[in-house]
Amino acid sequence: MARIGNGRGAVVAPSGLSPQAVTFLGRASSLLSQARVAAPADRLDLSYQAALRVAGAVLAANPGRRRKEDHSAWARVRRHAPEYSGWAARFEAFSRQWEDVRLGLARGVDELEARRVQAMAADFLAEVEADFGMLSDVA
Question: Pfam families this protein is in (predicted)?
Answer without folding.
Answer: HEPN_SAV_6107
